[in-house]
Amino acid sequence: MVAMWTFALARLAGILLLGLCLGLLIGPIWLWILAAACLYLGWQLVTLYRLDRWLRLRSQIDPPDFGGIWGDIVAQVIRLHRRKQFHKQRLIQLFRELRRSTAALPDGVIILSAQREIVWFNRQAARLLGLKRPVDVGLRIDNLIRSPEFVLYLHGDDFAMPLVIRPPVQLDLYLALQVVPYGGGQYLLLVRDVTRQMRLEAMRKDFVANASHELRTPLTVISGYLDTLADDSSIDPAWSGPIKDMRAQAQRMNAIIADLLVLSRLESTDGEAPRDAVNVPSMLERLHRDALASADRPRHVVLELETTDGLCGAAHELESAFTNLLVNGMKYTQAEGTVRMRWWADAEGAYFSVIDSGIGIPPEHIPRLTERFYRVDAGRSRGQGGSGLGLAIVKHALQRHGGWLDVQSAEGKGSTFTCHFPQARIWQQTVDTAVSA
Ligand code: ADP
């Protein structure tokens, strides 16, 4: 590059020198130097004009063949242009691949703008949601899917779990919609057909409910006969032990079937629990009295009512949840231990805790406690008549009230199970309000 510039300067100096020589020979000097400079300038202008013309009509004419510094500039422009073309082609190819692969995806994909307007969607999304190109591009997605749960989900900020809806165009389908935020305020909406899973789930629930119903009648008959046999003094005393065992097992089966029926009833009723006024303090007082009357209880069973507030919900579901927690507290606490029930409220919501000084739960089991039939110590649970379904019932009942269960425990020291209810579910009692507990 330095050589090229040296050559360009030498050429300029040579032209000026030629002007000087002609001036010395023919005179006047300044006129000949000016003429040489004008000649050089004119030549540069012509080159510049040819370069400009080529840059404008690059696709139609061949590059001019300049030597020296101008030739180098032309070569650099050509190189830059080729590089740009190469990257452009690569981007176009990548974009095509991306479009082809998203079009082939078995799931629907919709790109939404920050205002939740449709920017682009693939073929599967069009099929599942009945979207049409180009009319629906630019429309807000919540104008097309008007389900209230979806509108709430879309404008919320919790996209960890997908939302299952029935699409407006094909009511026999179940679609799982999941929003994935990305980039600067844009969103991907993933649409998956979960009809098969939902049908299987419904079949499973129906099967459990039907099987439990069918088992209940024969079991009632067997229990009845066992009760009669137990009271019959003419039976050989050698049979009294086996009959006692059979009665205990029949009772356990009854308890499991009763819990399965409660659970399937909770699962089959979609959506939120009703909002009946429930007088929680008086319900807890009743549960406390029943607990004190139970023969098989720890020495101290205490009730601490710190608010007169109740809840808007389903009384039988709440009672079932509270009873399960209380019964567990009593079951897993030694005779000399304490079980405390506590009911209180604050600005964020209302809470019910069962705090026991019992055997506690090792930390690795805590996340799985609400699974059906999950037990820390299966033998101990069975020995105490546990069905393994109690905490699953609690979880479902709380979910239907917009609440959740928190478990804190230390092995050998005791456990605290706390039901959290949102502020919106609190029912403030007035003196003359009718109570239903
Ligand atoms: P179960 O009928 O077996 O009590 P649950 O669903 O009510 O079934 O509870 C699941 C398991 O959680 C129990 O088997 C027990 O191991 C453990 N658990 C529940 N409550 C307590 C508690 N208060 N203290 C210790 N362990 C508990």
Provide a short characterization of the protein structure:
This protein is α+β, with helices and mostly antiparallel strands. The chain has helices at residues 2-26, 29-56, 68-104, 123-129, 141-144, 148-155, 195-231, 240-268, 280-293, 315-331, 378-383, 390-400, and strands at residues 108-112, 118-121, 163-165, 175-182, 186-193, 276-278, 300-305, 310-313, 338-346, 349-356, 404-410, 414-422, 426-427.
Annotation keywords:
51% helix, five-stranded mixed sheet, 13 strands, Helix Hairpins, alpha+beta, binds adenosine-5'-diphosphate, elongated, 4 domains, Beta-Lactamase, five-stranded antiparallel sheet, 437 residues
Tell me what you see in this structure.
- This protein has 437 residues and is an alpha+beta fold.
- The protein has four domains: 2-98, no CATH class; 105-193, 2-Layer Sandwich (Beta-Lactamase); 197-268, Signal transduction histidine kinase, dimerisation/phosphotransfer (DHp) domain (Helix Hairpins), CATH 1.10.287.130; 276-436, Histidine kinase-like ATPase, C-terminal domain (Heat Shock Protein 90), CATH 3.30.565.10.
- 51% of the residues lie in helices and 17% in strands.
- The chain has twelve helices and 13 strands.
- The strands form three sheets. A five-stranded antiparallel beta sheet has the order 2-1-5-4-3. Strands 7-9-10-12-11 form a five-stranded mixed beta sheet, covered by helices on one side. The protein has a three-stranded antiparallel beta sheet with strand order 6-8-13.
- Strand 4 (175-182) and strand 5 form a beta hairpin.
- The radius of gyration is 41 Å and the shape is elongated.
- Adenosine-5'-diphosphate is lined by residues 324, 328-329, 332, 356, 358-359, 361, 369, 374-377, 381, 386-392, 415.
